[in-house]
Amino acid sequence: MRRHSLPLIVVGLFVLTIGGSWLGILDAYVQLVLFYVGINIILTVSLNLVNGYMGEFSCGHAGFMAVGAYVSGILTVWLFAEDSVFGLPILPIGWAIPLFPIILIIGSIAAALVGLLIAIPSFRTRGDYLAIISLAVNYIVVSAITNMEVIGGSRGFVGMKRVMNAMGDVFDAPWLLIWTFVGIIATILIIHNFVSSTLGKGVEAIREDEIAAEIMGVNTRRTKVMTFMLSCGLAGLAGGMFAHWPGGYINPLMFFILRSTEVMVMVYLGGMGSISGSIISAILFTVLLEWLRPLGVFKWVVIPLLFIVMMLYRPQGIMGSSELTDVLPRLQTLLRADKEVKDNAPASD
Amino acid sequence: MPLLQISGLTHFFGGLRAVHGFDLKLEEGELVGLIGPNGAGKTTIFNLVCGVYKPTQGEILFNGTNLVGCRPHQVTARGIGRTFQNIRLWDQLTVLDNVRIARHSKLRYGVADSVLRTKRCQREEEDIERRAMELLDIFGVASHAQELSKNLSYGEQRRVEMARALAVEPRLLLLDEPAAGMNPGEIDQLLELVPFLRKQFSLTVWIIEHQMQVIMGICERIQVIDFGEPIAAGTPIEIQANPRVIEAYLGKEVA
């Protein structure tokens, strides 16, 4: 019985959120908050890979999100919608449903390639280079998009909503939430698998002592570039989803420094090098922002104050560098049940 | 063909001549010592061999291929493992992970296998873990496998570092002052351990050491350098009687 507990939890959450949205038990506002939570989880967990596990400092995560958002958004509109720039739709709308995940993946590949462009020069040496370059890239991406009139410039890019609505007409389901859910699970699995493999452990060795890592056989340059690309690609995935949000438009300012800062705050709030910490902090932060909405502008007084208190009393973040499974051993037996059944290992250690 | 052949190795740090005209021939299976006063350039020679620094001049042939210009991880992949004078374990990682990571140069799976946890990746990970545990067992630290390496005692950390160096499957093992900071009991263990490892893993060992007991006890051949230049070479007995060595260590007698 116990060996299926983790998949059961995931299926349960899926039924709760997607089923609830489908049947209309969760209203549009709750759905939107769930969507934001999902986007933020993907962004936070992926940035944690670079800032937490690798110990580098990337502060332009929203720039890569922008690349993913615009590439996927443009693809959706170009393929499935009538648009003043791209003309008539190329494919019938029915194809949008199966092709949607592929569009998201293309968006994330584009973001990963931009990541590659930055990683090659900035990882030749160690230090603050990545921070400066990633910040610069965030500016470059945003101002490049702002100056591209073809895709709406600073007014933003529209048209994704029509496709999303049409997808809903073909088969009524909360498509965006479904793919966001899949995206979260995929992101968590990818990062978890990566950092627990020997290959990914090299990332932490780089953080601890880069020269020792290189001497013990870790190709540090390649590892850093790969890790950064993986992180950027997942940011692009979050961007691609965000481009299809119910608001129906994206503009360059959505992906500016403030956004990057929010993601960084969530990483440090959750704890560096902790996936569960990142998930918890993404949920907390997003819900807190919504909950304090009635305060208006004053929420930007309350939230930073909360952070200052947090930094004073728990500077390592909610989880520090440990995972939920380390803190709650019962959870560990729950998740490891699968392995234990197979190995028939002794329970006590 | 010698396993390691160094000829005319010279290195400058800016204007400082750290190593000058260093030559060495290491035959397969030898156990050779490198000694010299503090600051003589011993660790620099190790770093040059490992590719941390690129030598100003000279040639380093390992198993017939030139190592000059190779990056450290490439040197390691060719079969050179080492330990450090001041322990350089990855503190925040477990003992097991410290040894696992040293298998990086032998990994056959890629990022895609790793993120998707393919069968190939799983099989290899099992293999890596088994080998790592075997090594930890040899060094008597298997019971600490899941502990953070910083929480181990000094002597245990030294042993983990050796296990890590052996995890790269080296043919040549470089030990940089393995007895530094050890108590007499631990030194006695080390004196048994090094020859045992050499036999067990068919290694060639090149060792830097200050403890005369260690170097005289296990080395077949010793080289002495001072101010970056070789001043003597020979068997332990010869070295002990060599006036230049005594001079380098104790200073010249004022007449």
Describe this structure in words.
The complex is a heterodimer of chains A (349) and B (255). By secondary structure, chain A is mainly alpha-helical. Chain A has one domain (2-258). Chain A has helices spanning 5-23, 28-53, 61-80, 96-122, 129-146, 160-170, 175-196, 198-208, 210-215, 220-242, 257-270, 275-291, 299-313, 324-327, 329-343; strands at 157-158, 249-250. Chain A has a two-stranded antiparallel sheet. Chain A is globular, with a radius of gyration of 21 Å. The model of chain A is unreliable at 337-349 (pLDDT under 50). Chain A is 71% helix and 1% strand. Chain B has a domain at 4-79 and 170-250: Rossmann fold, CATH 3.40.50. The termini of chain B are far apart. In chain B, the strands form 2 sheets. Chain B has a 6-stranded mixed β-sheet, with helices on both faces. The relative contact order of chain B is 0.18. Chain B is globular, with a radius of gyration of 19 Å. Helices cover 39% and strands 23% of the residues of chain B. In chain B, helix 3 packs parallel to helix 6 and helix 5 (119-138) crosses helix 6 (154-167). Chain B has 10 helices and 10 strands. In chain B, a hairpin with a 2-residue loop joins strand 4 and strand 5 (65-66). The mean pLDDT of chain B is 92. By secondary structure, chain B is an alpha/beta fold. The chains are: A mainly alpha (349), B alpha/beta (255). Chain A binds chain B through residues 189-190, 193-194, 197-202, 204-205, 207-209, 211-221, 226, 230, 321, and chain B through 50, 52, 71-73, 76-77, 82, 84, 88-93, 97, 100-107, 109-111, 114-117, 121, 124-125, 128, 164-165, 168.
